[in-house]
């Protein structure tokens, strides 16, 4: 029987450009798990592969600290031959993507139940300082074990961020489409939980209206719609939808994050009221101007995600990515990620001193992995303390590793 690390492979569950997902057995505790493999040999450069593995494992460890019934549990990390792997909870059920593709639209009460469960799990992750970045039907597993319908399990926490960073630094395959991505993610702006809320609103629109809110024949056209154009009315697709529900979807899909709901659950609760015909709550934040059109080059250049395990690719060359991203002047968060991936540690330190949170996190990891100096430790501890005081769990964990009390 083939194996990956200590896990005995039972069968293949799915595959895509990044790797393969297997059902496997853990012989140590006789447990069935899902093992997701991430191919590293396709990068071509051994040091680049090592850097990807480091960041992948670090993000997965942060995601592994999440303990919620609506989030797939990460059990183990490792490397086997030319691939990294993540062993996680095996969910006995299909993805929402599969359900929508094969069974049509769920009943409305089931739709709202799925959305509520997803929102609750996302808000929990956001409260722990973790943003998913790739919420879509393919990352929502529906466990058949639920007594009152399927139990939603969100998968792939911590993976999307790594792949999107890596796409900035090499020629490769950009997987999937940005259909569920928020305008701020497409334009490479800083993200928080409201980016996941936008993605959840796209899913809600699709489940209630029977089609995605943004549709185009080309990738560039789709990006332009998401960033600049108002979405289609859900009622134009399903005339039996209440006006109040359409208004809730409109707010959840606001171009500006500040115009959306304060939490994912607040969005779903208002949608439930809207489906009952109750008028949607008004946003307390005045409308903001949409991003300037100077962002469109960055938008196309940074549609870079781990899209799920079954997906198609769009190939872009290194020079096109680099030139477009440079011209668009992407935000400092991505600059820090690119600097770390390029092993430009001096640049990482400089960005950290300028207050870039991503770079400060990287400085701490540089020190912990033996690449840093004593000065890095002091800077990292200072940042970890500030972040821990705001409730960021990975920072609390780092302070414990340093032998300090959060």
Question: If you had to describe this structure to a student in words, what would you say it looks like?
Answer:
Helix content is 46%, strand content 14%. With 406 residues, the protein is α+β, with helices and mostly antiparallel strands. The chain folds into 3 domains: 3-89, Phosphorylase Kinase, domain 1 (2-Layer Sandwich), CATH 3.30.200; 96-295, Transferase(Phosphotransferase), domain 1, CATH 1.10.510.10; 331-398. The longest helix is centred in the first third of the chain and has 20 residues, at 108-127. The chain is globular and about 65 Å long. The model is unreliable at 162-176 and 284-333 (pLDDT under 50).
Mean pLDDT: 76
Taking pLDDT < 50 over at least 5 consecutive residues as the criterion, the unreliable ranges are 162-176, 284-333
Structural class: alpha+beta
The biggest beta sheet is recorded as: 6 strands, antiparallel
Q: Give me the CATH fold name of the largest domain.
A: Transferase(Phosphotransferase), domain 1
How much helix, percentage-wise, in residues?
40-55%
Give Rg in angstroms.
21 Å
CATH homologous superfamily heading of the largest domain:
Transferase(Phosphotransferase) domain 1
Q: Per DSSP, what share of the residues sits in E-state strands of 2 or more residues?
A: 5-15%
Helix and strand pattern: EEEEHEEHHEEHEHHHHHHHEHHHHHH
Helical element count? 17
Instruction: Quickly name the level 1 CATH class of the largest domain.
Output: Mainly Alpha
| Amino- and carboxy-terminal Cα gap | 45 Å
CATH architecture of the largest domain: Orthogonal Bundle
- Gross morphology: globular
């Amino acid at each position: 029987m083939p194996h990956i690390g200590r896990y005995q492979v039972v069968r293949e569950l799915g595959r895509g450009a990044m790797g393969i997902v297997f059902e496997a057995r853990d012989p140590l505790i006789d447990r069935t798990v899902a093992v997701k493999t991430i191919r590293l040999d396709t990068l071509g450069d051994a040091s680049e592969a090592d850097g990807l593995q480091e960041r992948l494992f670090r993000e997965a460890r942060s995601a592994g600290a999440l303990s919620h019934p609506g989030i797939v549990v990460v059990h183990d990390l490792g490397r086997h031959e030319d691939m990294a792997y993540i062993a996680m909870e095996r969910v006995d059920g299909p993805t929402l993507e599969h359900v929508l593709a094969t069974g049509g639209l769920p009943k409305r009460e089931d739709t709202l139940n799925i959305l509520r469960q997803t929102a609750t799990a996302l808000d929990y992750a956001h409260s722990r300082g973790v943003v998913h970045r790739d919420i879509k039907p393919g990352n929502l597993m529906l466990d058949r074990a639920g007594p009152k319908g399927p139990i939603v399990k969100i998968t792939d926490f911590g993976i999307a961020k790594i792949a999107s960073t890596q796409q900035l630094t090499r020629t490769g395959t950009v997987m999937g489409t940005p259909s569920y991505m928020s305008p701020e993610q497409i334009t490479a702006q800083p993200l928080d939980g409201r980016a996941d809320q936008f993605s959840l609103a796209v899913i809600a629109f699709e489940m209630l209206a029977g089609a995605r809110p943004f549709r185009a024949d080309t990738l560039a056209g789709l990006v332009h719609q998401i960033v600049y154009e108002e979405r289609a009315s859900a009622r134009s697709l399903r005339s039996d939808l209440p006006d109040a529900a359409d208004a809730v979807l409109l707010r959840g899909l606001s171009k500006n994050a500040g115009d959306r709901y304060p939490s994912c659950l607040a969005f779903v609760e208002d949608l439930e009221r809207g489906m009952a015909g109750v008028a949607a709550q008004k946003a307390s934040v005045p409308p903001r101007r949409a991003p300037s059109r100077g962002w469109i080059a960055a938008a196309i250049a940074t549609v870079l995600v781990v899209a799920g395990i079954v997906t198609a690719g769009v190939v872009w060359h290194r020079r096109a990515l680099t030139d477009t991203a440079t011209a668009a002047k992407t935000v400092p968060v991505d600059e820090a990620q690119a600097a770390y991936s390029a092993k430009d540690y001096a640049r990482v330190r400089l960005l950290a001193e300028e207050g870039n949170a991503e770079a400060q996190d990287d400085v701490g990891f540089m020190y912990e992995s033996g690449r840093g100096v004593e000065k890095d430790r002091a800077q990292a501890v200072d940042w970890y303390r500030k972040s821990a005081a705001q409730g960021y769990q990975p920072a609390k964990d780092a302070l414990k590793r340093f032998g300090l009390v959060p």
